[in-house]
Amino acid sequence: xxxxxxxxILEKALQHLGQVIxxxxxxxxxxxxxxxxxxxxARVEFNDTIKPGFQVEIRYQLRREGLRARQLLLxxxxxxxxLVTRYVTPPLAxxxxxxxxxxxxxxGNMFIHQKTPFVYAFIKGNRQPRIxxxxxxxxxxxxxxxxxxxxxxxxxNAVGMAYREIAKNTGMALGTIHxxxxxxxxxxxxxxxxxxxxxxxxxxxxxxxxxxYPIELKPKLNLRRYTxxxxxxxxxxxxxxxxxxxxxxxxAEILTEGYLHPEITTLYADNQIxxxxxxxxxxxxxNGNTLVYNKFWPQVYGNYTANGVVPPLLVYADLMNTNQAxxxxxxxxxxxxxxx
Length: 340
Fold this sequence. Notes:
Largest sheet: 7 strands, mixed
Helix content: 25-40%
Strand order of the largest sheet: 1-2-3-4-5-6-7
Number of strands: 14
Order of helices and strands: HEEEHEHEEEHHHEEHEEHEHEEHH
Strand content: 15-25%
Number of helices: 11
Radius of gyration: 22 Å
Distance between the termini: 21 Å
Shape: globular
Number of domains: 3
């Protein structure tokens, strides 16, 4: 079960904390799975030194590319927050400290501080064990796995389909589907009851997909950048006629009904965009205001309403990985409306 993995991560991390800071008796209150999407996984209270305790967010893997977005979310919370993860590298530990994000990991690295009473601990450099099945690289969050997960998260009933049907719908190999489901079962993301599979801890799975997407998948989507003086051309053109879909900021403006005003246009295309480029007069520019990526799914699926827009999960991921406050706010609105 995923919660069992979370409990193990948190327990190990708190053991190391107790060896450095005399926190006394520790009490953990787990929040319900149906929590607010930006709420914590648990609340931890101590009867000594650290008061009043922390709201804890547990991540199986923490990536430096998402730290700015993580800080923007943490800033919205009035309670002390603590990130807990399996392992924090020395460079990542430095960045967390610089951004004033408190953390613990399962091997004793940490950054803890409070003014009253004064507590400060910063430890980095403890190494992660490299042996054992539990530490093998997770295929679920690599390129092929992310493509399969995208399908399952956009169409959650599909988890109950036969592997061959999922392979056909995603364009992925049957062996890839098998490997993805092995990892999903391993981490408790799938529950099987009376022969029927259902997704579990969807919010956590979605967070993990969003974290991994810009690292494992997006860099392989053949980014092309263009400049055009027609900044809002996509409001007048049916992009679907050119096998193109809107992502990122323009998609967010549509999904949030005008909350976000785009500065960068993101497009996902099947193949070439020559006809559209000629129509809008795109010019190649490595610093251009129009980003074009290859689509990585064979068809449009999932529940969304705006014509010409990629599935909301991808819009959300694009916004979260811009690390801009206004985009993060729009991402929150999209998640609450389309992804819960």
